[in-house]
Amino acid sequence: MNVYWEALVLVTEPATLGAILIASLLGITLGAIPGLTAVMGVALLIPITFFMDPVPAIASIASLAAMAIFAGDIPGTLLRIPGTPASAAYVEDGYAMTKAGKPERALGLSMVSACVGGVMGVIALMVAAPLLARFATNFSSVEYFWLALLGLSCAAIIAAGSALKGIVSLLFGLWVATIGIDAVAGQPRFTFGSIELMGGVSFIPAMIGMFALPEVLRNLTARQPRIATPTMGPILAGLGATLRKRWRNLLRGGAVGSLVGALPGAGADIAAWVAYAIARRRSATPEAFGKGHDEGLIEAGAANNAALSSAWVPTLVFGIPGDSITAIVIGVLYLKGLEPGPIIFVKSPELVYAILFAFLLANLLLIPLGWAVIRMARHLLRIPPAYFAPVVLACCIVGSFAINNTSYGVLTMLAFGVVGWIFEENRIPIAPAILGIVLGGMLEFNFVTSMLKSRGDLAIFVSRPVAAALALIVLMIWVLPIMRAMRSRRKESP
Protein backbone atom coordinates (compact mmCIF):
# COMPACT_ATOMS: atom_id res chain seq x y z
CA MET A 1 0.00 0.00 0.00
CA ASN A 2 2.93 2.31 0.73
CA VAL A 3 4.07 1.97 -2.86
CA TYR A 4 0.67 3.09 -4.19
CA TRP A 5 0.60 6.01 -1.78
CA GLU A 6 4.11 7.11 -2.79
CA ALA A 7 3.10 6.84 -6.44
CA LEU A 8 -0.01 8.97 -5.84
CA VAL A 9 2.09 11.60 -4.06
CA LEU A 10 4.48 11.71 -7.03
CA VAL A 11 1.63 12.12 -9.53
CA THR A 12 -0.15 14.84 -7.55
CA GLU A 13 2.95 17.01 -7.25
CA PRO A 14 2.37 20.38 -8.97
CA ALA A 15 5.25 19.79 -11.40
CA THR A 16 3.78 16.46 -12.57
CA LEU A 17 0.21 17.76 -12.85
CA GLY A 18 1.46 20.82 -14.75
CA ALA A 19 3.50 18.63 -17.12
CA ILE A 20 0.48 16.38 -17.77
CA LEU A 21 -1.81 19.34 -18.49
CA ILE A 22 0.62 21.17 -20.78
CA ALA A 23 1.57 17.98 -22.67
CA SER A 24 -2.12 17.10 -23.03
CA LEU A 25 -2.92 20.50 -24.53
CA LEU A 26 0.07 20.22 -26.87
CA GLY A 27 -0.87 16.68 -27.90
CA ILE A 28 -4.50 17.41 -28.59
CA THR A 29 -3.56 20.48 -30.66
CA LEU A 30 -0.89 18.65 -32.69
CA GLY A 31 -3.15 15.67 -33.32
CA ALA A 32 -5.98 17.86 -34.58
CA ILE A 33 -3.84 19.44 -37.30
CA PRO A 34 -3.50 17.30 -40.44
CA GLY A 35 0.11 16.30 -41.10
CA LEU A 36 1.28 16.53 -37.49
CA THR A 37 1.36 13.10 -35.84
CA ALA A 38 1.55 11.75 -32.30
CA VAL A 39 4.96 10.14 -32.89
CA MET A 40 6.37 13.40 -34.22
CA GLY A 41 5.01 15.27 -31.19
CA VAL A 42 6.58 12.76 -28.80
CA ALA A 43 9.91 12.96 -30.64
CA LEU A 44 9.89 16.76 -30.31
CA LEU A 45 9.00 16.54 -26.62
CA ILE A 46 12.12 14.52 -25.75
CA PRO A 47 14.58 17.45 -25.53
CA ILE A 48 12.23 19.20 -23.07
CA THR A 49 12.12 16.08 -20.87
CA PHE A 50 15.90 16.37 -20.33
CA PHE A 51 15.17 19.04 -17.74
CA MET A 52 12.42 17.13 -15.92
CA ASP A 53 12.41 14.51 -13.18
CA PRO A 54 11.59 10.95 -14.38
CA VAL A 55 7.89 10.92 -13.43
CA PRO A 56 6.90 14.28 -15.03
CA ALA A 57 9.01 13.40 -18.08
CA ILE A 58 7.36 10.02 -18.73
CA ALA A 59 3.91 11.32 -17.70
CA SER A 60 4.14 14.15 -20.22
CA ILE A 61 5.01 11.69 -23.02
CA ALA A 62 2.10 9.42 -22.08
CA SER A 63 -0.32 12.38 -21.93
CA LEU A 64 0.76 13.84 -25.26
CA ALA A 65 0.47 10.47 -27.00
CA ALA A 66 -2.99 9.67 -25.58
CA MET A 67 -4.38 13.06 -26.59
CA ALA A 68 -2.77 13.16 -30.02
CA ILE A 69 -4.01 9.69 -30.96
CA PHE A 70 -7.61 10.69 -30.23
CA ALA A 71 -7.24 14.11 -31.85
CA GLY A 72 -6.14 12.36 -35.04
CA ASP A 73 -9.81 11.43 -35.47
CA ILE A 74 -10.77 15.10 -35.91
CA PRO A 75 -9.24 15.75 -39.37
CA GLY A 76 -10.27 12.24 -40.35
CA THR A 77 -13.91 12.90 -39.49
CA LEU A 78 -14.17 16.46 -40.81
CA LEU A 79 -11.86 16.31 -43.83
CA ARG A 80 -11.33 12.60 -44.54
CA ILE A 81 -7.63 13.07 -43.70
CA PRO A 82 -6.70 10.57 -40.94
CA GLY A 83 -4.45 12.21 -38.37
CA THR A 84 -2.92 8.81 -37.48
CA PRO A 85 -2.69 5.48 -39.36
CA ALA A 86 -4.99 3.95 -36.73
CA SER A 87 -7.71 6.53 -37.48
CA ALA A 88 -7.75 5.35 -41.09
CA ALA A 89 -9.62 2.18 -40.04
CA TYR A 90 -12.87 4.09 -39.43
CA VAL A 91 -12.32 7.34 -41.33
CA GLU A 92 -14.99 6.48 -43.93
CA ASP A 93 -17.67 6.07 -41.26
CA GLY A 94 -16.73 9.31 -39.50
CA TYR A 95 -16.64 11.28 -42.75
CA ALA A 96 -19.95 9.80 -43.86
CA MET A 97 -21.52 11.11 -40.64
CA THR A 98 -20.04 14.54 -41.37
CA LYS A 99 -21.54 14.52 -44.88
CA ALA A 100 -24.86 13.57 -43.28
CA GLY A 101 -24.63 16.72 -41.14
CA LYS A 102 -23.66 14.95 -37.90
CA PRO A 103 -19.91 15.62 -37.36
CA GLU A 104 -20.44 16.29 -33.65
CA ARG A 105 -21.95 12.81 -33.19
CA ALA A 106 -18.97 11.08 -34.87
CA LEU A 107 -16.42 13.06 -32.87
CA GLY A 108 -18.36 12.65 -29.62
CA LEU A 109 -18.46 8.86 -30.08
CA SER A 110 -14.72 8.82 -30.92
CA MET A 111 -13.92 10.87 -27.82
CA VAL A 112 -15.86 8.71 -25.35
CA SER A 113 -14.70 5.47 -27.01
CA ALA A 114 -11.07 6.62 -26.80
CA CYS A 115 -11.50 7.49 -23.12
CA VAL A 116 -13.11 4.14 -22.22
CA GLY A 117 -10.61 2.17 -24.33
CA GLY A 118 -7.68 4.07 -22.83
CA VAL A 119 -8.88 3.41 -19.27
CA MET A 120 -9.33 -0.30 -20.08
CA GLY A 121 -5.80 -0.40 -21.51
CA VAL A 122 -4.38 1.25 -18.38
CA ILE A 123 -6.21 -1.25 -16.14
CA ALA A 124 -4.77 -4.09 -18.24
CA LEU A 125 -1.36 -2.50 -17.86
CA MET A 126 -1.75 -2.19 -14.08
CA VAL A 127 -2.83 -5.84 -13.74
CA ALA A 128 -0.59 -7.55 -16.29
CA ALA A 129 2.68 -5.66 -15.92
CA PRO A 130 3.48 -6.54 -12.26
CA LEU A 131 2.47 -10.20 -12.79
CA LEU A 132 4.59 -10.53 -15.92
CA ALA A 133 7.48 -8.74 -14.22
CA ARG A 134 7.39 -11.27 -11.36
CA PHE A 135 7.43 -14.09 -13.94
CA ALA A 136 10.19 -12.46 -16.00
CA THR A 137 12.65 -12.22 -13.09
CA ASN A 138 13.57 -15.86 -13.87
CA PHE A 139 14.39 -15.09 -17.49
CA SER A 140 17.96 -15.57 -18.68
CA SER A 141 19.81 -14.20 -21.70
CA VAL A 142 18.19 -16.93 -23.84
CA GLU A 143 14.62 -15.76 -23.17
CA TYR A 144 15.61 -12.13 -23.72
CA PHE A 145 17.21 -13.06 -27.04
CA TRP A 146 13.96 -14.65 -28.22
CA LEU A 147 11.85 -11.77 -26.87
CA ALA A 148 13.96 -9.27 -28.78
CA LEU A 149 13.69 -11.40 -31.92
CA LEU A 150 9.93 -11.71 -31.37
CA GLY A 151 9.54 -7.92 -31.19
CA LEU A 152 11.61 -7.42 -34.35
CA SER A 153 9.71 -10.18 -36.19
CA CYS A 154 6.31 -8.73 -35.29
CA ALA A 155 7.40 -5.25 -36.42
CA ALA A 156 8.81 -6.46 -39.74
CA ILE A 157 6.33 -9.20 -40.72
CA ILE A 158 3.01 -8.37 -38.99
CA ALA A 159 3.00 -4.60 -38.49
CA ALA A 160 4.42 -3.59 -41.86
CA GLY A 161 2.12 -3.45 -44.88
CA SER A 162 4.66 -5.22 -47.09
CA ALA A 163 6.73 -7.90 -45.34
CA LEU A 164 9.63 -7.36 -47.76
CA LYS A 165 9.74 -3.60 -47.10
CA GLY A 166 9.40 -4.27 -43.38
CA ILE A 167 12.43 -6.58 -43.50
CA VAL A 168 14.41 -3.98 -45.47
CA SER A 169 13.60 -1.38 -42.82
CA LEU A 170 14.49 -3.81 -40.03
CA LEU A 171 17.86 -4.72 -41.58
CA PHE A 172 18.71 -1.02 -41.86
CA GLY A 173 17.94 -0.54 -38.16
CA LEU A 174 20.01 -3.59 -37.18
CA TRP A 175 22.93 -2.31 -39.27
CA VAL A 176 22.76 1.07 -37.51
CA ALA A 177 22.77 -0.75 -34.17
CA THR A 178 26.11 -2.39 -35.04
CA ILE A 179 27.88 0.93 -35.65
CA GLY A 180 30.46 1.71 -32.96
CA ILE A 181 32.82 -0.33 -30.81
CA ASP A 182 31.80 -3.95 -30.35
CA ALA A 183 30.96 -4.44 -26.66
CA VAL A 184 32.40 -7.98 -26.58
CA ALA A 185 35.50 -7.91 -28.82
CA GLY A 186 36.21 -4.19 -28.52
CA GLN A 187 36.60 -3.80 -32.29
CA PRO A 188 35.28 -0.70 -34.12
CA ARG A 189 32.56 -1.45 -36.70
CA PHE A 190 31.50 0.85 -39.57
CA THR A 191 33.12 3.85 -37.88
CA PHE A 192 35.24 4.88 -40.92
CA GLY A 193 37.80 6.43 -38.58
CA SER A 194 35.29 8.82 -37.00
CA ILE A 195 35.72 9.29 -33.25
CA GLU A 196 32.06 10.28 -32.85
CA LEU A 197 30.85 7.07 -34.51
CA MET A 198 32.91 4.91 -32.12
CA GLY A 199 30.29 5.58 -29.45
CA GLY A 200 27.56 4.40 -31.81
CA VAL A 201 24.70 6.34 -33.39
CA SER A 202 22.90 8.46 -30.82
CA PHE A 203 19.41 7.06 -30.56
CA ILE A 204 17.46 10.27 -29.79
CA PRO A 205 18.69 12.43 -32.75
CA ALA A 206 18.14 9.45 -35.06
CA MET A 207 14.52 9.14 -33.93
CA ILE A 208 13.85 12.87 -34.08
CA GLY A 209 15.20 12.88 -37.63
CA MET A 210 13.31 9.83 -38.87
CA PHE A 211 9.95 10.83 -37.40
CA ALA A 212 9.90 14.64 -37.43
CA LEU A 213 11.98 15.77 -40.42
CA PRO A 214 9.96 13.81 -43.05
CA GLU A 215 6.83 15.57 -41.75
CA VAL A 216 8.51 18.95 -42.29
CA LEU A 217 9.62 18.03 -45.82
CA ARG A 218 6.22 16.62 -46.74
CA ASN A 219 4.31 19.65 -45.44
CA LEU A 220 6.63 22.01 -47.31
CA THR A 221 6.39 20.16 -50.61
CA ALA A 222 2.73 19.08 -50.59
CA ARG A 223 0.02 21.30 -51.98
CA GLN A 224 -2.38 22.39 -49.28
CA PRO A 225 -5.97 22.61 -50.55
CA ARG A 226 -8.28 25.25 -49.13
CA ILE A 227 -10.10 23.66 -46.23
CA ALA A 228 -13.84 24.13 -45.65
CA THR A 229 -14.96 22.79 -42.30
CA PRO A 230 -18.58 21.98 -41.37
CA THR A 231 -20.49 23.63 -38.55
CA MET A 232 -20.74 21.77 -35.26
CA GLY A 233 -23.78 21.07 -33.07
CA PRO A 234 -23.95 19.93 -29.41
CA ILE A 235 -21.28 17.24 -28.93
CA LEU A 236 -22.67 15.24 -26.04
CA ALA A 237 -26.34 15.20 -27.09
CA GLY A 238 -27.64 11.63 -27.54
CA LEU A 239 -24.28 9.97 -26.85
CA GLY A 240 -25.51 8.17 -23.72
CA ALA A 241 -28.29 6.34 -25.54
CA THR A 242 -25.98 5.29 -28.39
CA LEU A 243 -23.26 4.03 -26.06
CA ARG A 244 -25.77 2.09 -23.94
CA LYS A 245 -26.96 0.42 -27.14
CA ARG A 246 -23.38 -0.28 -28.34
CA TRP A 247 -21.82 -1.27 -25.00
CA ARG A 248 -20.66 -4.61 -26.41
CA ASN A 249 -18.70 -2.85 -29.16
CA LEU A 250 -17.17 -0.49 -26.63
CA LEU A 251 -15.99 -3.22 -24.26
CA ARG A 252 -14.92 -5.60 -27.04
CA GLY A 253 -12.90 -2.84 -28.71
CA GLY A 254 -11.13 -2.05 -25.43
CA ALA A 255 -10.37 -5.74 -24.84
CA VAL A 256 -9.09 -6.35 -28.38
CA GLY A 257 -6.95 -3.21 -28.24
CA SER A 258 -5.48 -4.23 -24.88
CA LEU A 259 -4.55 -7.68 -26.18
CA VAL A 260 -3.15 -6.62 -29.56
CA GLY A 261 -1.33 -3.59 -28.13
CA ALA A 262 0.54 -5.80 -25.66
CA LEU A 263 2.18 -7.69 -28.54
CA PRO A 264 5.71 -6.38 -29.14
CA GLY A 265 5.79 -4.21 -32.23
CA ALA A 266 2.04 -4.40 -32.97
CA GLY A 267 0.68 -1.05 -31.68
CA ALA A 268 -2.55 0.88 -32.14
CA ASP A 269 -2.60 0.71 -35.95
CA ILE A 270 -3.07 -3.05 -36.10
CA ALA A 271 -5.40 -3.03 -33.08
CA ALA A 272 -7.79 -0.55 -34.75
CA TRP A 273 -7.94 -2.52 -38.00
CA VAL A 274 -8.43 -5.83 -36.17
CA ALA A 275 -11.20 -4.34 -33.99
CA TYR A 276 -12.93 -2.82 -37.04
CA ALA A 277 -12.83 -6.19 -38.85
CA ILE A 278 -14.28 -7.97 -35.79
CA ALA A 279 -17.03 -5.35 -35.45
CA ARG A 280 -18.01 -5.82 -39.09
CA ARG A 281 -18.03 -9.60 -38.83
CA ARG A 282 -20.15 -9.57 -35.66
CA SER A 283 -22.55 -6.88 -36.87
CA ALA A 284 -26.11 -7.56 -37.98
CA THR A 285 -25.70 -4.88 -40.68
CA PRO A 286 -22.18 -5.31 -42.13
CA GLU A 287 -23.25 -3.69 -45.40
CA ALA A 288 -23.61 -0.35 -43.57
CA PHE A 289 -19.91 -0.23 -42.61
CA GLY A 290 -18.05 2.56 -44.37
CA LYS A 291 -21.28 4.51 -44.82
CA GLY A 292 -21.57 6.17 -41.41
CA HIS A 293 -22.12 3.13 -39.17
CA ASP A 294 -21.33 3.76 -35.51
CA GLU A 295 -20.39 0.17 -34.55
CA GLY A 296 -17.00 0.13 -36.30
CA LEU A 297 -16.23 3.68 -35.21
CA ILE A 298 -16.90 2.88 -31.53
CA GLU A 299 -15.10 -0.48 -31.49
CA ALA A 300 -12.01 0.61 -33.44
CA GLY A 301 -11.87 3.96 -31.58
CA ALA A 302 -11.80 2.14 -28.23
CA ALA A 303 -9.16 -0.32 -29.49
CA ASN A 304 -7.01 2.58 -30.70
CA ASN A 305 -6.37 4.13 -27.28
CA ALA A 306 -6.48 0.78 -25.42
CA ALA A 307 -3.56 -0.46 -27.53
CA LEU A 308 -1.67 2.75 -26.86
CA SER A 309 -1.82 2.02 -23.12
CA SER A 310 -1.15 -1.72 -23.22
CA ALA A 311 1.85 -1.20 -25.54
CA TRP A 312 3.65 -0.17 -22.35
CA VAL A 313 3.39 -3.74 -20.99
CA PRO A 314 6.29 -5.22 -23.05
CA THR A 315 8.11 -1.91 -22.74
CA LEU A 316 8.16 -1.77 -18.95
CA VAL A 317 8.34 -5.53 -18.28
CA PHE A 318 10.80 -6.74 -20.93
CA GLY A 319 12.36 -3.55 -22.26
CA ILE A 320 10.88 -4.32 -25.71
CA PRO A 321 8.93 -1.49 -27.40
CA GLY A 322 5.26 -2.16 -28.05
CA ASP A 323 5.12 0.53 -30.77
CA SER A 324 7.04 3.53 -32.13
CA ILE A 325 6.08 5.76 -29.19
CA THR A 326 7.27 3.31 -26.57
CA ALA A 327 10.50 2.88 -28.57
CA ILE A 328 11.11 6.57 -27.87
CA VAL A 329 10.09 6.06 -24.22
CA ILE A 330 12.80 3.42 -23.77
CA GLY A 331 15.43 5.97 -24.78
CA VAL A 332 14.05 8.46 -22.26
CA LEU A 333 13.99 5.81 -19.51
CA TYR A 334 17.68 5.07 -20.09
CA LEU A 335 18.49 8.78 -20.10
CA LYS A 336 16.77 9.07 -16.70
CA GLY A 337 18.77 6.15 -15.30
CA LEU A 338 15.78 3.77 -15.30
CA GLU A 339 16.52 0.49 -17.04
CA PRO A 340 13.25 -1.01 -18.37
CA GLY A 341 12.72 -4.66 -17.47
CA PRO A 342 11.48 -6.68 -14.52
CA ILE A 343 14.11 -5.21 -12.24
CA ILE A 344 12.51 -1.75 -12.45
CA PHE A 345 9.48 -3.18 -10.59
CA VAL A 346 11.84 -4.21 -7.77
CA LYS A 347 14.11 -1.17 -7.63
CA SER A 348 11.63 1.66 -8.30
CA PRO A 349 8.04 0.35 -8.00
CA GLU A 350 6.73 3.77 -6.91
CA LEU A 351 7.98 5.30 -10.17
CA VAL A 352 6.31 2.60 -12.24
CA TYR A 353 2.97 3.00 -10.51
CA ALA A 354 3.25 6.78 -10.71
CA ILE A 355 3.63 6.45 -14.49
CA LEU A 356 0.55 4.19 -14.59
CA PHE A 357 -1.51 6.67 -12.53
CA ALA A 358 -0.39 9.48 -14.81
CA PHE A 359 -1.53 7.46 -17.82
CA LEU A 360 -4.93 6.96 -16.19
CA LEU A 361 -5.25 10.67 -15.46
CA ALA A 362 -4.33 11.55 -19.05
CA ASN A 363 -7.07 9.28 -20.40
CA LEU A 364 -9.66 10.79 -18.06
CA LEU A 365 -8.65 14.27 -19.23
CA LEU A 366 -9.69 13.21 -22.74
CA ILE A 367 -13.31 14.15 -22.07
CA PRO A 368 -12.93 17.84 -21.03
CA LEU A 369 -9.97 18.58 -23.30
CA GLY A 370 -11.45 16.57 -26.17
CA TRP A 371 -14.73 18.51 -25.88
CA ALA A 372 -12.81 21.81 -25.98
CA VAL A 373 -10.68 20.90 -29.00
CA ILE A 374 -13.70 19.62 -30.94
CA ARG A 375 -15.33 23.00 -30.40
CA MET A 376 -12.17 24.73 -31.69
CA ALA A 377 -11.51 22.22 -34.48
CA ARG A 378 -12.89 24.47 -37.23
CA HIS A 379 -10.29 27.15 -36.45
CA LEU A 380 -7.36 24.71 -36.02
CA LEU A 381 -8.04 22.99 -39.33
CA ARG A 382 -7.81 26.31 -41.19
CA ILE A 383 -4.12 26.68 -40.24
CA PRO A 384 -1.94 25.29 -43.07
CA PRO A 385 0.51 22.68 -41.71
CA ALA A 386 3.35 24.35 -43.64
CA TYR A 387 3.14 27.26 -41.17
CA PHE A 388 4.39 24.92 -38.43
CA ALA A 389 7.36 23.64 -40.46
CA PRO A 390 9.89 26.30 -39.28
CA VAL A 391 8.91 25.75 -35.64
CA VAL A 392 9.18 21.96 -35.95
CA LEU A 393 12.55 22.23 -37.73
CA ALA A 394 13.90 24.58 -35.04
CA CYS A 395 12.75 22.13 -32.33
CA CYS A 396 14.48 19.29 -34.19
CA ILE A 397 17.79 21.18 -34.35
CA VAL A 398 17.70 22.41 -30.75
CA GLY A 399 16.67 18.99 -29.44
CA SER A 400 19.40 17.16 -31.36
CA PHE A 401 22.06 19.66 -30.29
CA ALA A 402 21.01 19.44 -26.63
CA ILE A 403 21.89 15.72 -26.36
CA ASN A 404 25.67 16.30 -26.14
CA ASN A 405 25.93 20.03 -26.98
CA THR A 406 27.72 19.14 -30.23
CA SER A 407 26.87 19.50 -33.90
CA TYR A 408 27.23 15.70 -34.25
CA GLY A 409 23.68 15.28 -32.93
CA VAL A 410 22.33 17.77 -35.49
CA LEU A 411 24.16 16.02 -38.33
CA THR A 412 22.82 12.66 -37.15
CA MET A 413 19.28 14.08 -37.06
CA LEU A 414 19.58 15.52 -40.59
CA ALA A 415 21.07 12.31 -42.02
CA PHE A 416 18.37 10.11 -40.51
CA GLY A 417 15.72 12.64 -41.51
CA VAL A 418 16.70 12.22 -45.15
CA VAL A 419 16.64 8.43 -44.72
CA GLY A 420 13.20 8.65 -43.10
CA TRP A 421 11.90 10.81 -45.94
CA ILE A 422 13.24 8.34 -48.55
CA PHE A 423 11.58 5.51 -46.62
CA GLU A 424 8.22 7.27 -46.51
CA GLU A 425 8.34 8.27 -50.18
CA ASN A 426 8.87 4.59 -51.06
CA ARG A 427 6.26 3.37 -48.53
CA ILE A 428 8.91 1.63 -46.42
CA PRO A 429 7.76 1.58 -42.77
CA ILE A 430 9.98 3.44 -40.31
CA ALA A 431 8.94 1.56 -37.15
CA PRO A 432 10.94 -1.64 -37.90
CA ALA A 433 14.09 0.45 -38.42
CA ILE A 434 13.58 2.20 -35.08
CA LEU A 435 12.95 -1.11 -33.32
CA GLY A 436 16.08 -2.50 -34.99
CA ILE A 437 18.15 0.39 -33.59
CA VAL A 438 16.60 -0.04 -30.12
CA LEU A 439 16.70 -3.83 -29.93
CA GLY A 440 19.77 -4.56 -32.07
CA GLY A 441 22.19 -4.16 -29.17
CA MET A 442 19.99 -6.22 -26.85
CA LEU A 443 19.66 -8.97 -29.46
CA GLU A 444 23.42 -9.18 -30.05
CA PHE A 445 24.36 -8.96 -26.38
CA ASN A 446 22.03 -11.77 -25.33
CA PHE A 447 23.03 -13.94 -28.29
CA VAL A 448 26.75 -13.59 -27.52
CA THR A 449 26.18 -14.07 -23.77
CA SER A 450 24.20 -17.26 -24.39
CA MET A 451 26.83 -18.62 -26.77
CA LEU A 452 29.61 -17.92 -24.26
CA LYS A 453 27.61 -19.68 -21.54
CA SER A 454 27.06 -22.77 -23.69
CA ARG A 455 30.56 -22.67 -25.27
CA GLY A 456 29.08 -22.47 -28.74
CA ASP A 457 26.27 -24.99 -28.36
CA LEU A 458 23.18 -23.66 -30.15
CA ALA A 459 20.94 -26.09 -28.26
CA ILE A 460 20.94 -23.63 -25.34
CA PHE A 461 18.40 -21.51 -27.23
CA VAL A 462 15.70 -24.21 -26.88
CA SER A 463 16.90 -25.82 -23.65
CA ARG A 464 14.36 -24.06 -21.38
CA PRO A 465 10.56 -24.40 -21.78
CA VAL A 466 9.82 -20.66 -22.12
CA ALA A 467 12.70 -20.23 -24.57
CA ALA A 468 11.47 -23.15 -26.67
CA ALA A 469 7.91 -21.73 -26.74
CA LEU A 470 9.19 -18.30 -27.80
CA ALA A 471 11.37 -19.92 -30.48
CA LEU A 472 8.32 -21.73 -31.84
CA ILE A 473 6.29 -18.49 -32.00
CA VAL A 474 9.10 -16.68 -33.82
CA LEU A 475 9.44 -19.56 -36.26
CA MET A 476 5.70 -19.48 -37.00
CA ILE A 477 5.77 -15.72 -37.62
CA TRP A 478 8.43 -16.17 -40.30
CA VAL A 479 7.24 -19.45 -41.83
CA LEU A 480 3.46 -18.97 -42.03
CA PRO A 481 3.52 -15.97 -44.45
CA ILE A 482 5.89 -17.92 -46.72
CA MET A 483 3.59 -20.96 -46.71
CA ARG A 484 0.57 -18.72 -47.37
CA ALA A 485 2.33 -17.06 -50.31
CA MET A 486 3.35 -20.44 -51.78
CA ARG A 487 -0.22 -21.74 -51.43
CA SER A 488 -1.74 -18.72 -53.18
CA ARG A 489 0.86 -18.99 -55.97
CA ARG A 490 -0.08 -22.63 -56.47
CA LYS A 491 -3.75 -21.67 -56.78
CA GLU A 492 -2.99 -18.96 -59.33
CA SER A 493 -0.81 -21.22 -61.48
CA PRO A 494 -2.77 -23.11 -64.19
From TrEMBL:
Keyword list (alphabetical) reads:
Membrane, Transmembrane, Transmembrane helix
Residues passing through the membrane, by range: 20-48, 55-72, 107-132, 144-161, 167-185, 197-214, 255-279, 351-374, 386-402, 408-423, 430-452, 458-480
Q: Which residues form the DUF112 domain?
A: 17-435
Q: Which InterPro entries match?
A: DUF112_TM
- Would you tell me the protein name for this molecule? DUF112 domain-containing protein
Which species does the entry assign this protein to?
Answer: Dinoroseobacter shibae (strain DSM 16493 / NCIMB 14021 / DFL 12)
